[in-house]
Amino acid sequence: MNQVAVFDDIHANLPALEAVLADMDARNLDQRYCLGDLVGSGTFPNEVIVTIRERNIPTIMGNYDQGVGHSSDDCGCAYTSLEAEALGKRSIAWTNEHTTAENKAYQLQLSAQIPLQLGHLRLLLVHGSPWRINEYLYGDRPDSSLERLLDMAEVDILVCGHTHRPLKPAPCPMNMPRCYETAVVKVPLCA
Asked: Which of 45, 83, 62, 29 is nearest to 135 (CA)?
């Protein structure tokens, strides 16, 4: 395996998922991984889960998957305002009501992380961080902190989602055609 496609935070947006999958098909990217949060916010929770399942895409449990899987009223989100919190509560309530029991059970069996070997590089795919499903790794985190994360996880590349924002642009390691903004790349491996 020398190429992988990683996507995350679908949040029940079926048209967006279909567009991403069509793009991967057009590029012949067969090794696909999803970093979780299949549901929440959008109106197609069951259809998104069925699509992921039908395509056998290895998927990590996101905080929304965990919340809805447990029929919780808490998605594990960090809110920046009372309005955002109110919307979040409405979203998880609606998603709980409209997600089938079978799909909730599927969400609860998703893995917390997926380790991969890409050539000589050790990758770890997570939703939030290697230690917490809902930890936000924002771009203002110091490089030294990211280096410690990589060392503690014993990986060369950490691929994470959850924030809905780019982490940091990073130089690409040797033999990788592209670097994605959600990846944390260990500096000594860079060309």
From this structure: 62
Q: Which residue has the higher pLDDT, 176 or 18?
A: 18
Contact (CB, 8 A) for 36 and 160 = no
pTM: 0.84
| Superfamily name with CATH number, domain 5-108 | Metallo-dependent phosphatases (3.60.21.10)
Own/partner contacts of 166-175, CB < 8 Å, gap of 24 or more, are 166/139, 167/137, 167/138, 167/139, 167/141, 168/139, 173/121, 175/2, 175/119
How do residues 95-136 score in pLDDT, each as one tens digit? 999 999 999 999 999 999 999 998 888 999 999 889 889 887
State yes or no: pLDDT of 72 exceeds 90.
Answer: yes
Q: Is 68 helix (H, G, I), strand (E, B) or coil?
A: helix
Both structure tokens of 23: 């793009």
DSSP-derived 3-state class of residue 161: coil
- C-alpha to C-alpha distance for 88 and 90, rounded to whole angstroms: 5
In this predicted structure, the answer to whether residue 191 has a pLDDT above a threshold of 60 is: no
Select from 174, 172, 173, 150 the least CA-distant residue to 160.
150
CA-CA distance, 156 to 183, in Å (whole number)?
10
Burial-class residue 90 by CB neighbours within 10 Å (0-12, 13-18, 19+): exposed
CA distance 15 to 19: 6
